[in-house]
Design brief:
This protein is an all-alpha fold and 498 residues long. Helices cover 80% and strands 0% of the residues. It is built from 22 helices and no strands.
């Protein structure tokens, strides 16, 4: 009997020893897991605290410039299309695929490239993706078959898409919640300012060989790539922690120091990581109701912008007998509206700071929704003015005013949605932007396919009125989300508060 008790005591002691060793091992793991300290002098690897504000704005501005070039490439096809149709002897419908396939590339690319940035960092993703985009732009420019041109368009958009998804995450890496409003607003302009500039560039080069439009943007892409290679450092904190762990191992000779991302890389292959991580944007889209609706909202307004790339030539050539260059300049209304609205980002940032102060210093992502309130009304108002001033006996400035007000609304919608996305999903900001990019790119790619037929079949005025009424249905969205946002975020598996 005593032997039995002794054996049980021995087993209990062994179990306690095993648990103690396990606890000790866990404590050692926690002790040697590196992190950035928020107090005292910043670590050399801590970019967010180490870089001066001017350098941060330079980095975000360069990323924004590259994003603008990528989006210009999407729309420059519109007024180059007639020459492409003549050169390859194709129909208007086939030519429209030059816009659609590029935008589809912009939508599908982030699903695979954004997760890579979260595993291996922003810098390597930017450099490698933009380099490959340039390679495929070369195919678009010099291919002797339309199949090669369209294939090059899709893949150049696919690899260029990182600047519409990863870029938002890179900006959130280096700016604090308090600072991020203005740089994100500046970055937001790239998503729609580029599409407005594309037709102007292709219109100016209309009488030259169509290839010169693509060569011009190929050169611009090369300049951006060179500047990124030279001056943009790694910004993703988990990757920077690997550098800190490597430094500590070299300085101390202790190999127990590690960064969490190192463990993730060892346990998961590149292919498996990309496949698993690519599911996250769909998880955001399907399991987070706010993300789904907001993605649809930005998709709708940007799809209307791309719809105008086939509608404007028809409207202004039919009603006002514009030349090709004049049609290209007709997109200036959209651009002017966006540029006039952009300085308000400073005002919104000040109002955001005031809201935080009134809330006892507590920040919530819903505080970023204010621009969306104004965008919800400006977009249908601008579309309505455009729809009912498109008459040959009404001066062409009427539709231009309508498109400018719509441009203001587009800016406000994007600022509100992008600001909320980066703020609410900070850890998964790149995946959140990838989700948004996918939805709006799919919608933007589909709308031009039926836009011209709709305007011809329904008439310019009623087609425009139909589009305006769809945006009217979206007016309640920001007000409902402002009220129920905290509850909906609490149900999201991806929302992030810190």
């Amino acid at each position: 009997m005593s032997e039995s008790i002794s054996m049980k005591d021995s087993d209990s002691c062994n179990q306690i020893d095993a648990e103690s060793k396990s606890a000790l091992s866990a404590n050692e793991q926690t002790e040697f897991e590196v992190s950035f300290s928020e107090d005292g002098d910043p670590d050399p690897e801590d970019i967010a605290r180490h870089l001066p504000l001017v350098r941060k704005y330079y980095i975000s501005s360069l990323i924004t410039l590259t994003s603008t070039v990528i989006t210009i490439i999407s729309s420059c096809w519109s007024l180059a299309s007639p020459n492409i149709m003549k050169h390859f002897h194709i129909s208007h419908e086939v030519s429209t695929l030059g816009i659609t396939l590029y935008i589809f590339g912009l939508g599908f690319g982030p699903l695979f490239l954004s997760p890579i940035s979260e595993l291996y960092g922003r810098r390597i993703t930017f450099v490698s993706s933009l380099f490959l985009s340039i390679i495929w732009q070369c195919l678009t420019t010099w291919s002797k078959t339309i199949e090669g041109v369209l294939f090059g368009r899709f893949l150049s958009g696919f690899f260029g898409s990182v600047f519409l998804s990863v870029a938002g995450g890179a900006i959130s890496d280096i700016f604090s919640k308090k600072q991020i409003g203005i740089p994100m607003a500046i970055y937001t302009t790239a998503a729609f300012l580029g599409p407005s500039l594309g037709p102007i560039i292709s219109g100016a080069l209309y009488h030259a060989n169509y290839k010169w439009t693509f060569v011009t943007l190929l050169i611009a892409s090369g300049v951006c790539l060179t500047l990124i290679v030279i001056s943009v450092p790694e910004t993703y904190a988990p990757v920077l922690l690997i550098k800190k762990a490597q430094r500590l191992r070299e300085e101390t000779g202790d190999d127990r120091y590690y960064a969490p991302l190192e463990i993730t890389r060892k346990e998961t292959s590149i292919f498996k990581s990309v496949v698993l991580s690519a599911k996250r944007p769909f998880g955001l889209l399907l399991r987070d109701p706010m993300m789904g609706v907001l993605c649809f909202y930005t998709g709708l307004v940007l799809a209307i912008v791309y719809l105008y790339f086939v509608a404007f030539p028809y409207v202004f050539e039919t009603l006002y007998h514009f030349t090709v260059m004049e049609v290209g300049c007709s997109y200036i209304g959209l651009m002017v509206g966006m540029l006039l609205a952009s300085p308000t980002s400073y005002i919104f940032q000040k109002r955001y700071d005031a809201k935080v102060e009134r809330n006892g210093g507590v920040r919530t992502p819903e505080m970023r929704f204010e621009p969306l309130y104004y965008g919800a009304f400006c977009t249908p108002i601008g579309l309505m003015i455009f729809a009912w001033t498109c008459y040959s006996h009404v001066l062409w400035i009427g539709p231009q005013i309508g498109s400018a007000i719509f441009g203001v609304g587009v800016y406000f919608v994007f600022v509100g949605v992008f600001g909320y996305t980066v703020d609410a999903y900070r850890k998964y900001a790149a995946s959140g932007m990838a989700c948004n990019s996918f939805v709006r790119s799919v919608m933007s790619g589909v709308f031009p396919l039926f836009g011209l037929q709709m305007y011809k079949g329904m008439g310019v005025n009623w087609a425009g009125f139909l589009i305006a009424m769809v945006t009217v249905l979206m007016i309640p969205v920001p007000f409902l989300f402002d009220r129920y946002g905290p509850y909906l975020r609490s149900k999201s598996p991806y929302a992030w508060d810190d």
